Amino acid sequence: MNLVVFLLLSLFSIVLQSTVFVDLTVFGVKPDLILVLTVLFSIFCGPQKGGALGFFVGLLQDLYLGGFIGMSALAKGMTCAMTGWIAKGAFRENMLVPIIALFMGTLLHESVYLILGKLIGLPWGWSLWLWRGIPTALYNACLVPFVYSFFYDWAAQKNEELQTL
Amino acid sequence: MINKKKALISVLVVITIILIIKIMAATGWNNTALSPVTRFLKEIVLPVQKGITFVTEEINGIMGYFSDNEALRQTNKELTSKTAELEEKIYHLKEQELENQRLRDLLDYKQEKEGNYDLAMAKIVGRNPGNWYKTIIIDKGTKQGIKPNMPVVNYQGLIGTVARVTENSAEVLLILDSGGAVGGRIFENRVTPGIVIGDGTTEILRMIHIPHDIQVEAGQTVVTSGLGELYPKGIRIGTILEVKPEANGLMQTATIRPFVDFSKLEEVFVILHVKSPESDTKADIMSQEGGSVEEP
Q1: Which of A30, B33, B94, B122 could pair covalently with B138 via S-S, beta carbons 3.0-4.6 A apart?
Q2: Does pLDDT of B281 surpass 70?
Q3: What pairing do the DSSP bridges indicate for beta strands B251-258 and B205-211?
Q4: pLDDT at A77
Q5: All structural domains of chain A with their residue ranges
Q6: Cβ neighbours of B37 in A, within 8 Å
Q7: Preferred mutation among B15, B18, B21, B27 to probe A, highest tally of A CBs within 10 A
Q8: Backbone angles phi, psi at A122, to 5 degrees
Q9: pLDDT tops 90 at residue A76
């Protein structure tokens, strides 16, 4: 049931990403809400569940978009597994933990995405990573203070359910 | 056993990644066909997407109203300020244009009268603060050779005479003042019938003591007669507006509109020295030009 709710939430995030967030573009980038949600979940769920969650949400995103299926799944899966692993022993009440996790996680996500794109022959260069990855990482990290407290309270209440997710 | 399991998982992960990469490549830009899952997801998301887009556009529209309003206010403010600035510039340009015109007229006048007078140009720096006298203050005085009783003119005609002089300024009594009487002559027929005086209140002059048998008509030009030696002869004074008989029946009075616009005076000439008086009749002018005219 929780998985269904989360998938619906992810789907809704995808919709928001393609509608409302278009208007929130700053320096040519808009925040990656799906990545924000999955990385924050992975901080609480750990690397395995976080990674799996990231993978499936990414897959959902890929399936929705209909092209390059598996690219977001791999990038988000790997990113969430990594941030979940790093944040495993961290003091999650400290706001800096999710901020740094999201900043680093976004950079990793963009790197993986770029490498995967290059692997399948897309004409992407590292300058694209520089101009897209770093601003997105900053933007995502800036969103943490606005969503983390709600997320933390909710996650604390649903801790048991998250563990069984 | 555990190592085998780990190795198996690792192999599976690697195989999965390779498979995923294969799928990624296969579902790239070259593949335009959508999978049934994608079509299904897009179909169920579409109404939500439409709804959110609609709401977003509405909100943007409402917010846009305020932001546009603010932008319009800002634009309006900028344009108003710019308009004021431009109006001021236009005003200055017009002022300069008028000044240029005045100075050009003065220069032309000075060149034209070079053979008749030695002229000193002066700028009006003040007017009489009271209501009793019609005088102006000019910025030239004894240092510049100005003396009392010198006539003051401009390119339009006679203005008055210097009444009092200091080192660097002079007070000019205008012909509009009741104390500034001038001997006048009709330019058209050289008749010297009377005295031109002002009433001190309006900008209209009167020519008094014209004998009743003298033919004086509206539209004729009055110039200085040269009698009394205060003013040289031939300086333009004004145009006759109308002629009325005086109460005694022996004389008549003509009202004259002066050529000089006293309300717009800014620069004047003081006649320092008269070299040769101006031609004061049509006959003189015609004879100078080689023509002839019958004098009455």
Answers
A1: B122
A2: no
A3: antiparallel
A4: 93
A5: 31-156
A6: 63
A7: B27
A8: -75, 140
A9: yes
